[in-house]
Write a structure and sequence with these properties.
It contains 13 helices and 11 strands. It is an alpha+beta fold. It has 2 domains: about 210 residues, no CATH class; about 80 residues, 2-Layer Sandwich (Alpha-Beta Plaits). The strands form 3 sheets. The chain has a 5-stranded antiparallel β-sheet, with helices on one face.
Length: about 400
């Protein structure tokens, strides 16, 4: 291949010159204002080995600088990001996406066949409007349930972190907190996730990350319907502030008649009640782990019966809105329940029930009187209504009690 800038050959004319890269949201970063450096024909593409325009930028604060690794032609053929080589629609490795769509792209790997294949792909891209993928990927129009369950809908900015500081690993880093690299333990070199190849990731072969995701997909459980046939309600969580009641109704009306939709904005969840059990089962089957509304991944499960929810609230001490009641410090506790009918007798002076109100029977002495010297028994001789003093006579003593009224 001729790589001289002065030569005007067919290969020289196919070199790429672009002004802006094809990136995913994660590689672009969360900062909407970034500055990129552009180097025309600064590096060879790691896939097709043709020189292309290299763009370099910093995705955010305390992040490492990133740059494009593949040309735009290779990116459009696979519909992947130029930096991380992950699918732009699902955010998954190419091997996982190809397994979900059930097709295999046999791209040539030799230099001559690769150059011829790339030139034909560029001709096909130039004839299209750019809104749809080209090649074998453009022919796969059916959606996959597995890809909808595994798709990444939110950016994962942790992938942009700096590299591990090699001086800190050896115990020689003297920068401290000012070091732009991470002071963390490096990954195990024997771990298969630590050995990733760019070409293997692009061609979808021997990708350890993809193999790990496919194993997780094979062990994913399904949502079983409850035994109670009266339950026709689905719980939808993770609404956020972008999903409204209208959005939920527009999505779930296709499964059957909807009776009510209750949105709890404070808890960011909703309860959708269908008119029939068949419609609720179909909605649960089609929406479990693959429900995406307005770019937000929502998780759903079956609702519970009113009796079960009432027992749980009574046990946990929560209100109807799901807020747990915490006792306020300093306030008196709740009053005890009223006594039973057979125990509700009037005993204001804490006397034993065996004591009679008759004046001819003896009553035991209260505990606060000193009766240790000799057993003393008292009996009432007179109970004045408006007097001030009353005498109690006993065997050996006489006690005077004063009344205020």
């Amino acid at each position: 291949m001729a790589t001289s800038l002065g030569s005007n050959t067919c290969n020289r004319q196919n070199w790429e010159d672009s002004d802006f890269p094809i990136l995913c949201q994660t590689c672009l970063g969360e900062n909407p204002y970034i500055r990129m450096t552009k180097e025309k024909y600064g590096k060879e593409c790691k896939i097709c080995a043709r020189p292309f325009t290299v763009l370099r930028w910093c995705p955010g604060f305390r992040m490492r600088f990133k740059k494009t690794e593949a040309c735009q032609t290779c990116s459009k053929l696979k519909n992947v990001c130029q930096t991380c080589l992950l699918d732009l629609e699902y955010g998954l490795p190419i091997q996982v996406r190809d397994a979900g769509l059930s097709f295999k792209d046999d791209m040539p790997k030799s230099d001559v066949n690769k150059e011829f294949y790339t030139q034909n792909a560029e001709r096909e891209i130039s004839n299209s409007d750019g809104s749809q993928p080209v090649g074998v990927l453009g022919k796969a129009t059916t959606a996959s349930d597995m890809l909808l369950k595994l798709a990444w809908t939110t950016p994962y900015y942790k992938r942009n972190r700096p590299q591990v500081c090699s001086f800190w690993v050896k115990g020689e880093c003297k920068r401290g907190e000012e070091c732009p690299y991470r002071h963390e333990k490096p990954t195990d070199p024997d771990d298969p996730l630590a050995d990733q190849n760019t070409k293997d990731r692009y061609y979808g072969i021997n990708d350890p990350v993809a193999e790990k995701i496919l194993k997780q997909a094979s062990t994913m459980h399904h949502l079983a319907p409850p035994d109670d046939k009266t339950i026709t309600t689905l719980y939808i969580g993770g609404l956020g502030y972008t999903v409204s009641e209208t959005d939920l109704r527009n999505h779930f009306y296709q499964f059957g008649e909807i009776r009510t939709i209750t949105v709890k904005q404070r808890q960011q969840c909703a309860f959708i009640q269908f008119a029939t059990r068949q419609a609720a089962e179909m909605a649960a089957e089609k929406s479990f782990n693959k429900l995406i509304v307005n770019g937000c991944r929502l998780h759903g499960k079956w609702g519970r019966s009113q009796a079960a929810r009432g027992k749980e609230k009574e046990k946990e001490g929560t209100t109807d809105s799901g807020i747990k009641l915490v006792p306020v410090p300093g306030l008196p506790r709740a009053l005890p329940p009223p006594p039973a009918a057979e125990e509700a007798f009037t005993n204001y002076f804490n006397l034993t029930p065996k004591c009679s109100s008759s004046i001819d029977e003896y009553c035991p002495a209260p505990s606060f009187w000193d009766c240790t010297s000799s057993p003393t028994r008292f009996w009432i001789t007179q109970m004045p209504l408006n007097g001030t003093t009353t005498s109690f006579h006993g065997n050996s003593r006489t006690h005077l009690l004063s009344f205020s009224g």
